[in-house]
Write a sequence for this structure.
């Protein structure tokens, strides 16, 4: 696509839309073409904040010739109908995570994009962080030897503050599907698949720190252990109530270990003193101890990178790095984890394909 890409912003329910709007406005090959929201007051305020015209009629916005793509940041329950509608109007789609509430809806979104010849890109900021690409290169090269354990932690502390007031839909099971473990953990489900392939099974425990969340039937943290075909285990910890944090990734192999820092809001806000973004220990170079690896990571730009990559792939004609299938697989991993917690047993993949949140 050689012309400037006109992007319609569909909903400001999730504040990541403001990050995307900044990135698209700054991209040399893209511009904001309009905005819509199911809540007109929220939509008008959002549109004014990013300096774009608000259109109250979704059909009219999507039939405009100057709209080439749609960036969806609605309540999770609305992702599927909006993505399908945009695709049916011939618009490329960038969609916030989680992809949808259930596997049938994910398949509908993938099918609509394929049938209408448009790009569907799943928003997973971790895929666009240089330190994660560096980790993947080390894993592919066998630098660490046989990997036994990966630990991923991802969270923030907004649950202790104004999250429920700022984004009331995200603490509503019908709109969000589940709580903090889903909202934050789905980032790292995708990364674990990227690093290790599809999991074989999961065991999980999910709970609450905050009585106010428990009263709503919403979890605010959890932990899961995923098993993989190569024998690797991955521990995933995520939640909404963590004020400060240590490593966001630890990988243990037969030849060495790797530690990553500051790739979630918890550690970005208050990291351990003196840490570097990425550190590698190799037994063959024991005398050197932990070595700092040079990576250009800036977590505060993570969401902007997503929208920039979306515009880039539309211009280049290349497939997006993160696809609808990736989005669906991450939802499946999270569904399996919640099923494990509810049923008190190990859950094996693949699931039947009919599962949906809320459970």
């Amino acid at each position: 696509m050689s012309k400037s890409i006109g992007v319609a912003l569909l909903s400001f329910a999730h504040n990541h839309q403001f990050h995307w709007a900044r990135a698209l406005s700054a991209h040399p090959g893209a511009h904001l073409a309009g905005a819509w929201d199911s809540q007109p007051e929220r939509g008008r305020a959002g549109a004014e904040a990013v300096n774009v015209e608000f259109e109250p009629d979704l059909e009219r916005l999507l039939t405009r010739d100057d709209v080439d793509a749609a960036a969806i940041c609605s309540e999770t329950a609305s992702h599927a109908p909006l993505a399908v509608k945009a695709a049916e109007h011939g618009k490329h789609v960038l969609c916030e995570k989680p992809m949808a509430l259930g596997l049938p809806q994910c398949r509908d979104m993938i099918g609509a994009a394929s049938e209408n010849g448009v790009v569907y890109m799943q928003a997973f900021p971790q895929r666009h962080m240089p330190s994660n690409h560096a980790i993947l290169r080390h894993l592919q090269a066998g630098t660490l030897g046989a990997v036994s354990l990966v630990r991923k932690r991802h969270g923030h502390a907004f649950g202790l503050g104004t999250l429920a007031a700022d984004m009331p839909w995200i603490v509503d099971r019908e709109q969000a599907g589940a709580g903090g473990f889903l909202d934050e953990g789905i980032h790292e489900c995708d990364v674990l698949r990227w690093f290790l392939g599809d999991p074989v099974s999961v065991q999980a425990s999910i709970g609450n720190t905050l009585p106010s969340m428990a009263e709503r039937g919403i979890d605010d943290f959890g932990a899961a252990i995923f098993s993989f075909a190569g024998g690797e285990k991955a521990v995933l910890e995520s939640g909404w109530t963590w004020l400060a944090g240590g490593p966001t990734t630890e990988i243990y192999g037969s030849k060495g270990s790797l530690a990553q820092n500051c790739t979630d809001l918890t550690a970005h806000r208050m990291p351990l003193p003196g840490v570097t973004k990425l550190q590698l220990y190799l037994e063959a170079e024991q005398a050197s101890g932990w070595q700092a690896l040079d990576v250009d990571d800036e977590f505060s730009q993570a969401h902007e990178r997503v929208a920039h990559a979306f515009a880039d792939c539309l211009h280049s004609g290349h497939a997006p790095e993160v696809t609808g299938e990736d989005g669906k697989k991450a939802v499946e991993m999270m569904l399996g984890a919640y099923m494990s917690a509810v049923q008190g047993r190990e859950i094996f993949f693949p699931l039947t394909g009919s599962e949906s949140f809320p459970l």
